[in-house]
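Quick note —
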Amino acid sequence: MTQPAQHFKIAMPKDVKDWLSRTAPRHQRSRSAHIIFLLRQEMEKEKAPGSRQANPDASEQ
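Predicted structure written out below.
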């Protein structure tokens, strides 16, 4: 089941907003959808085997 979206404001440097405004349409996404896509990618990286987040006891490399 999909959770309802929750809105919040975020302060963003102009260069980041400009980059987002250029790249989101290239991926056929709104800026919001592209931010969510990028954040979900980072969430998946944390779950990946061998990641420090997935294995907090792993020694620093």
